[in-house]
Design a protein that fits this description.
about 375 residues, alpha+beta, 2 domains, 8 helices, 18 strands, globular
Length: about 375
């Protein structure tokens, strides 16, 4: 779990994705958002950081839902915390419901809410539903990424069949969420929007198709991985940290090293270069959080959270923590660079609270004298059991 470099401690990289930690159970129940005894008042949150002044509209089977008088079912504008309330008639024709939140011409987010029956079930014997009972009432940059990934026929909406077959993949969700956040919270619309992607929902759709975005000539994955955009990516990482804060459980994680390689130290011009890596078995307490709805597996060790993908249908987990190439030390003659990774792959049994799989580590040092590089590697099996 820990890589030690001979020159310096490797920088730690937080890879994550998620939404604002608020449940968004407040809202404005006036105007078209009001609900009487014949309607269910659905309260939720529009957030990428809370978004005020947005309007949320309900769609059924991809078509704007309307009440008996023919009026579109939309909320009033969200409040300063991004809260909204929308009235859903109990006698609305059955269908698969989606939510679209819009503000101005460029901000548009979406969420696959579920069937009318699921909304009614969440209300129970009452007439109100909050995002605590129905999490899909929260409309975020992440639900928007889920929405466009589930839309496999690219018709701009999500059917029940598409939603039922959708398997979230964090590695695809995060880049789309990053570019959406870049537009909404960091004023990057001039470079990321353009052409067919005139709003953030269309931008997310272009992102998951690996299209070049706006005037950047980069895909979302390339843009999110660019060091110049680390502030945006880090903000998305913090969103996930906020959202998963209460979902962690302690696990005993044990590794069994089956192979390793440590090259000999190289010396020249009164300088030396080497690398170090753990070659012994370890047993440590870590914290793990699972978000099946978003396909996320979060591992926390020594206070650092690393996020991987989780397939709730198969239990498959894939996680990589990267320490990118960075200057670690400088002398009058030599500059040293370090980098590395920790990769985890395996199966998580949610009912048993047990993960089994394999791991691989790299710890590398490079110096400026002749760009000579030393790589230390280790690999083996790993098991984590919930305490």
């Amino acid at each position: 779990m820990h890589k030690a470099a001979a020159v310096a401690v490797l920088p730690l990289f937080l890879a994550a994705c998620g939404g604002n930690g608020s449940n968004g159970d407040g809202g404005n129940a006036s105007g078209s958002g009001a609900a009487g005894n014949n309607a269910i008042a659905l309260s939720g949150l529009v957030s990428d950081g809370p978004i005020a002044g947005a309007q949320v509209c309900l769609f059924s089977n991809g078509v704007q839902a309307r009440n008996a008088a023919g009026a579109a079912l939309c909320s009033t504008e969200t409040d300063a915390q991004g809260n909204y309330t929308i009235a859903i008639p109990k006698d609305l024709a059955p269908g698969f419901l989606t939510l679209v939140a819009s503000k101005g011409n460029t901000i548009k987010l979406a969420s696959a809410l579920g069937t009318l029956a699921q909304v009614t079930q969440a209300a129970g014997s009452g007439t109100t539903v909050t995002s605590a009972a129905l999490p899909s009432a929260r409309i975020t940059h992440f639900t928007t990424a889920d929405f466009v990934l589930a839309d496999t026929n690219s018709d701009g909406t999500v059917s029940k069949a598409e939603f039922d077959s959708y398997v979230p993949d964090y590695t695809k969700i995060r880049p789309a969420a990053v570019v959406v956040k870049a537009v909404i919270d960091f004023g990057q619309g001039d470079s990321l929007l353009g052409g067919q992607a005139s709003n953030t929902l269309l931008l997310a759709a272009a992102a998951v198709k690996d299209q070049a975005l706006g005037t950047t000539s980069k895909t979302a994955l390339e843009w999110a991985g660019d060091a110049a955009n680390v502030t945006v990516a880090t903000a998305v990482d913090q969103d996930l940290a906020n959202e998963t804060a209460g979902a962690f459980a302690n696990y005993q994680l044990s590794t069994n090293v089956t192979s390793y390689h440590i090259p000999s130290t190289v010396s020249a011009n009164n300088a030396s270069i080497s690398c170090e890596i753990n070659t012994g078995n370890e047993s440590v307490i870590v914290r793990i959080a699972i978000d099946a709805s978003r396909g996320i597996f979060v591992l926390e060790h020594d206070g650092i959270q690393t996020v991987g993908s989780y397939n709730p249908k198969t239990g498959a987990v894939s996680l990589t923590k990267s320490d990118p190439l960075a200057v670690s030390a400088m002398t009058s003659q030599v500059t040293y660079y370090t980098e590395g990774y920790f990769k985890l792959n395996g199966i998580f049994d949610a009912s048993a609270g047990k993960f089994t799989g394999t791991y691989a580590e790299l710890s590398a040092n490079t110096w400026s004298l002749d760009l000579k590089r030393q790589e230390c590697t280790a690999a083996g099996s790993v098991m984590a059991i919930r305490l």
